[in-house]
Specification:
235 residues; two-stranded antiparallel sheet; globular
């Protein structure tokens, strides 16, 4: 139920944002995009710090630097080889042209990454499956609903379709919770979330037009910590 509510909140928020967009003068769009980009950057930085830095003996200690570097390099190499960004954009642009949905490609890809990255998505889905406690996902639903209003108002209606990957991703974790609980916790969870928030940071920088990072090409980076975890099991 938690994931279903989460998906509905994204749909409702996106529709509200889409209709609000019509009432926003174009001269304000640039400033709003900059503010949104800055907000996403702050969310990304906060997520990276939360998952990579701990306090030990009153000192700040950072973790996972080498793994993050390797994950990003190997991940983007795989993503570039597979041309993930181009393929996602191609599929999205076909839908955009067919149904005349302006900005579908950008809003769908960015929305999907933002909603699926983070500990709340994983922990919330696990709690829903194991304890039948959807409270974490209900809180995430409120946050995602508000975010979808802003994203849809600035980028387009494609945000509403990012509810589908959220439904599949979080729903799968909930259904497989008994098998995943022992794996998706501790250091592995922190590592996956840290890399995920780096991708969120990239999205924020793109919003602010500081960079033009093909964020989707970095998605395989999220799998490298899992691969490393599996290797360590047999060493």
């Amino acid at each position: 139920m938690g994931t279903i509510v989460n998906a509905i909140s994204i749909v409702v928020g996106s529709l509200i944002g889409f209709f609000l967009k019509k009432g926003i003068d174009e001269k304000y769009q640039s400033g709003i995009n900059m503010a949104l980009g800055l907000s996403v950057v702050i969310i990304g930085v906060n997520g990276i710090i939360t998952n990579c830095i701990t306090v030990e003996s009153n000192n700040l200690v950072s973790h996972y630097e080498l793994l993050i570097v390797i994950s990003l390099i190997v991940g983007v190499y795989i993503g570039e080889r597979l041309s993930l960004q181009d393929k996602l954009n191609g599929m999205s642009e076909n839908i955009e042209k067919k149904f005349n949905l302006s900005g579908f490609a950008r809003s769908f890809v960015n929305g999907t990454i933002i909603y699926c990255v983070g500990a709340m998505a994983i922990i919330g889905a696990l709690n829903d499956g194991l304890l039948h406690d959807p409270s974490v996902l209900y809180i995430k639903s409120i946050l995602d609903g508000i975010t979808s209003i802003i994203l849809s108002a600035t980028m387009g209606i494609g945000v509403v379709f990012s509810a589908i990957p959220v439904l599949i991703y979080q729903g799968s974790i909930t259904l497989l919770a008994n098998n995943l609980q022992s794996v998706l916790q501790g250091e592995l969870l922190n590592q996956i979330c840290a890399i995920g928030y780096i991708l969120v940071l990239c999205i924020g920088l793109n919003f602010m037009k500081i960079t033009k990072i093909k964020t989707a090409n970095f998605l395989p980076s999220l799998l490298i910590p899992v691969l490393w975890y599996c290797i360590n099991l047999f060493i």
